[in-house]
Amino acid sequence: MESEELNRVKGGLARLIVGVTGPPGSGKTTLAQRAAELLSRDGIPVGGFVTREVRRGAARIGFDIVELGLGRVTPLARVEAHGGPRIGRYVVYLENLERALSDTVDRSLEAGDVVVIDEVGPMELLSDGFRSRVRRVLSEAQRALLTFHYHSKDPLVTAVREGVGELIVVRRGEAMRAAERVAALLGKAR
């Protein structure tokens, strides 16, 4: 029987897929963004995206996709929008998600960069293209970081939870420290 370390080796490079989960507001996005910054600072190419809240005053009005490496910010969902699929009170802009996937995730997979997907959540899971990219990241990426909902029962989230080499449960106030750990893990897996 092969050791776990040998099972992680692919093409001469150690593979590592890190999963990050936690309750809402625990800092999953903060962790993903900070880990990407730390890796980039160390000269490690990072691609993919994070989603961030958009607020008007104290009210959350939507979410944006922030494409890592490109710096492009596009709307993922808005409360005041019409048309398109809905998750709760939000209309989801699937075409923007699809563009981010092709511009960042596909490119990063092909280049062998660290791939960040924040998050494997209900809005993103509306997209068949997103689902196929997540499966591709799980099977092909050398190094990746995926965040996902803590209690999700979606079969793809279950596959992510079971397919990661390292699972980190982040709690409120721990995101920055955990980001350093994630960056160190992904930085070593090369």
> Might you state the CATH topology name?
Rossmann fold
Q: Provide the domain count.
A: 1
Q: Beta fraction of the residues? A: 25-35%
In angstroms, what separates the terminal alpha carbons?
24 Å
Q: Just give the CATH class.
A: Alpha Beta
Q: Any idea what the shape is?
A: globular
**What's the pLDDT, averaged over the residues?**
91
Order of helices and strands: HEEEHEEEEEHEHEHEH
- List unreliable stretches of 5+ residues: 1-12
Percentage of residues in helical conformation: 25-40%
> How does the helix and strand content classify structurally?
alpha/beta
CATH architecture: 3-Layer(aba) Sandwich
Kindly describe this structure.
- The chain is an alpha/beta fold.
- The chain is built from six helices and eleven strands.
- It has helices at 4-8, 28-41, 94-111, 128-140, 155-163, 175-188, and strands spanning 9-10, 13-14, 16-22, 46-56, 59-68, 73-78, 86-87, 90-92, 114-120, 143-149, 166-169.
- The strands form two sheets. The protein has a nine-stranded mixed β-sheet, with helices on both faces. A two-stranded antiparallel sheet has the order 1-2.
- It starts with a helix and ends with a helix.
